[in-house]
Structures are given as C-alpha cells and as structure tokens.
Design brief:
This protein is α/β, with parallel strands linked by helices. The protein folds into two domains: about 190 residues, Aldolase class I (TIM Barrel, Alpha-Beta Barrel), CATH 3.20.20; about 70 residues, no CATH class. About 30% of the residues lie in helices and about 15% in strands. The strands form two sheets. It has a seven-stranded mixed beta sheet. Strands 8-9-10 form a three-stranded antiparallel beta sheet. α1 runs parallel beside α2. The relative contact order is 0.10.
Length: about 270
C-alpha cells in the first residue's frame, strides 16, 4: 500500500492472459474505502488482512503503532467493496499472547461471510519464535470449544487447499455463523504432499518451499545476455523437482529453527 504505482501494478498483472485472481496481503492500516474502489477497478479480487489481536494494548505492542480501530474499519470497507467472501483475516496464534482471543475472532464470522484463518506460528528468522509459545492446531480447537463456540468441519473442494475449514456455531442456540474459520497447520499437521505453491519474491528469487532457505535468482537469469525462455523453463522445472518431501527437509519445526538460514517472512512475502 506504500507504492504510489500500486494501481498500475495490479492493472498490469490483470492484463496478463491466464490471470484469474489477484490477491493482496496487507496490515490494513491504509486500506481505505476510496483506495479499495481504485484497486478493485484495476483488478484486485481479494485481500488478506494480517491482524493478530483485537485488543488495543496488544495491537500497539505487536505493531509498535496505534490503529486497531482503523484496521477494523478498513476490513468493513473491504467487505463492502470486494464482498465479505473475498476478505480473509490472518491471525498468527501465540501461546500467552493472543490464544485467549480465538473465540472473539471466530465471532467476527457470525454476521458476515468473512474468512478468519488461524495460522500456527512458524519459525522464521527474526520473528522471536519459541517452542514454549507455540500453540498447535488441536489446542486452538479446544480453546474455541471451551468458550461457547462449536466448530463443524467443512470439506474443501480444492485438494491443494492449505487451510482446514470449519463453520462456527453458538453452543447454546446452535445458530450457524455466516463466515468460515480456517486453520493453517504447517507445523503440527503439515500439508506438504498436496502443496502446489511456489513463490517469486520481490527481489526476483524463486522459492519452492517456505521452510527451505534455498532460492534461485530468476532476475539474474532474465538479465543475462543469452537468456532464453527455454532456459528459464528448464531451470524452474529443475528447482521444482528438487523440492524436499516435507517442511523443506528439516523434519519438524525444531529442525527448521535450528537451520536458521531462512530469511524473515517480511522479505519472503505474504
């Protein structure tokens, strides 16, 4: 959202044949109604808003700035402009910090068709990850169930979906919530066998797994004097075929942490 040419960037991507959807991950602070209208017209179809707490004091602690009410208002604006079903709220869950807020996030789905996704805390460089503060998927389910909210599992039609989806219900009345609740369980119940994702970072590196520090610079290949599309296809194919079986070849979350060669998520991209 800090780019002055963001509308032009999205419009350019939208003009590429074969591109059906364009999503954007943002902290939501400047995602105003007016800007959303321009972004939608350019081709934006969905947004993921990173929001780890609904408590003012915690928001300031984790983001080092005020603005929770502004983010919540901009989420409403995104629902209005893009449609609630095209808005996701991403919540990284940390034991002892925001694990007491899970039911409150689930209740955001009660009256609108919004998606709330709880993400297991992953050990990236410089994010302060600790096994003592890690909360697994199963514990999240238990925490929500103990707070007057029932969850019912939903089967996803997308076999490569990285999210386990559920519907919330009020325990006392059985009233079903309009939106969905998802869990991204990369650490405790990985989905590597069905993952079909690769990433191109902002500095031009191809990354086939979030948890492996290995990257290949496509930027340098494209800038080479004797570059050809055939060469590019071969290199991309080779890199993808060398992808490790699961979790970047590290075995588990503690192995990822011990490796320590992966760069921060802020530099990888949401």
């Amino acid at each position: 959202m800090l780019r002055g040419d963001l509308v032009e960037v999205i419009s350019g991507i939208n003009d590429i044949p074969g591109v059906d959807t364009i999503g954007m991950t943002t902290n939501g602070l400047t995602l105003t109604h007016k800007k959303l209208l321009s972004l939608k017209e350019a081709g934006l179809t969905s947004v993921n808003v990173s929001l780890d707490t609904l408590v003012d004091k915690k928001f300031v602690e984790i983001t080092r700035r005020k603005g929770l009410n502004k983010v919540l208002a901009n989420i409403d604006a995104a629902c209005d402009v893009l449609g609630s079903e095209n808005v996701k709220i991403n919540v990284v869950v940390m034991k002892g910090f925001n694990d007491d807020e899970l039911a409150s996030f689930v209740r955001l789905t009660k009256d609108r068709d919004i998606n709330v996704r709880f993400i297991e805390w992953m050990p990236f460089s410089d994010n302060g990850w600790s096994a003592d503060r890690f909360l697994p998927y199963s514990s999240m389910i238990d925490s929500i169930a103990s707070d007057s909210v029932n969850l019912q599992s939903i089967t996803s039609e997308d076999v490569s979906d990285t999210t386990k989806w559920w519907k919330g219900r009020e325990s006392e009345t059985g009233e079903e919530f309009l939106g969905r609740v998802g869990f991204i369980t990369s650490m405790s119940s990985h989905f590597c066998s069905t993952c079909n994702r690769i990433r191109l970072t902002a500095d031009g590196n191809l990354k086939v797994c979030l948890f492996n520090g290995g990257e290949v610079s496509l930027r340098d290949i494209l800038r080479a004097d004797e570059f050809s599309i055939s060469d590019l296809r071969k290199i991309v194919g080779t890199v993808v075929r060398e992808k490790k079986e699961f979790l970047g070849g590290h075995g588990d979350m503690n192995g990822i942490k011990r490796d320590g060669k992966n760069r921060p998520m802020t530099l990888i991209g949401g």
